[in-house]
Specification:
By secondary structure, the chain is α+β, with helices and mostly antiparallel strands. It contains 15 helices and 23 strands. A nine-stranded antiparallel β-sheet has the order 3-2-1-15-14-13-12-11-10, with helices on both faces. The chain has an eight-stranded antiparallel beta barrel with strand order 16-17-18-19-20-21-22-23.
Amino acid sequence: MSYTYTFFKRIALFFTLATIVSLQASAQQNTAATLQKLDAYYQKALKDWDVPGMAIAIVRNDSVIFAKGYGVRDLKAGGQVDANTVFGIASNSKAYTAAALGILVDEGKLNWNDKVTKHLPWLQLYDPYVTQELNIKDLLSHRAGFRTFSGDLLWYNTTYSRREILERARHLRPAYSFRDGYGYSNLMFIAAGEVIEAVSGQKWEDFIKQRFFGPLGMNRSYTSVNELAGKDNIASPHGSDEKHKPYPTTFTAWDNWNPAAGIFTSVNQQAQWMRLQLNRGTYKSKNIFSEDASRMMWTAQNAMPVSKQSEANVPSTHFSAAGLGWMMNDYEGRKILAHGGGHEGMNSRTVLVPEENLGIVILTNSMSSIMSPLANYTLDQFFGVQNGRDWSQFSLDNIAKARKAQEEAAAKAPKEKPRKSKPTMDLEAYAGTYNSPLYGDATITVQNKQLVLDLAPAPALGGKLTHWQHDIFDLEWKNNFALLTPTKVRFIVGPDGKIAEMRLDSNNPDFHFSELEFKKVK
């Protein structure tokens, strides 16, 4: 009986192992078929969206199961994009900054609830109470009271240091009550970087390299445009012209914003970061930050509304919130951790699905919004969504409808025509120095019978003024930066009949020129 029992036990074990092997082979075949389908989808989307180049990596169960490049690094110079091509990941850097603070919490050098002024005693915001109560979690969850992108002109092409930027932040007016709203804030992540330096004694760049790039083997990852010189396989940024066609442009070194958006890397290397994140702080059996820190970063800190349009577009989404360096929502019954990145000429996205041990990174050298549709389609394939949406075409159709509506509205709107061919005053009357408490000095000079604007904090900005009507002039930017849009310079007459103030009027989605309230000082 013992022999018979052992025999059947062995037979059962054999069939069990055979079943496991068969299931594993089937799973591998299914994964291979899924990746093949995705590869074809990505290639088609690249053409449909007219994106010069992109790279995509997928991590599953602590392995990189897909990593590939598409298109070219530069529309003029060419160069094939591959999985090692370096892109600017912009605000995907925020998760690194949050994790760096998590390490300092693990080491007992910091507490998530520490008041920021404990470490940056010189920091002042718009209200003494907010200055006093602002804590580390507030910095990382976009709830300090600022509207989205408030104060970003302080870092954009300026010579200001991080501390100088933050010292000027006290002039920014709140858009909502402290901790009672959402406003995406790069400035608060710059402050987080200053906290890291104050607590660790290391610059943000050095901390990121030592604590993350080194242990993760990210030896082709950088923290400044200046580090890219002489390196190969670097993608070039591309702007978008009036016809929505991409054109090559160049990087600008904005080191003063690095803790918010300064990292450059490839999908192969960002995949290692996703492995660390999905393993809750552990990489190849080495602990980088604790599970407690991971859970804190992935906890909803600031609830955000789900709009009616979002509900219509993605019915399975029921909540949205900011964590610490991450955004989160639910999709098809799973919790999603994600973040986007928008550099000048490069857009990107990182997506994590912890319960599926799944991570996706999409890096592009364009200013399109191709990343979210591709991420959603990829999630659908791994989630087994039946009759899933063609997210790429769905998004392109929505963009086309929106553009058509804008064109129709513009066609119906009264045409803005200059009513006068000459300024109301001699050009010399506009000349002088203007000061914005937030921004600093600007000068208007007369050169070759034309007004010229110079912005002292940002020598690369400014340009020539051409009269439009009354005391309003069109600004011809001296440099064709991709994030700049058509802008007018408006002069305001004071009670004495002389020019007293100046405003820059621009319908720019990235920068609030209205915050720069210039008054003539001489």
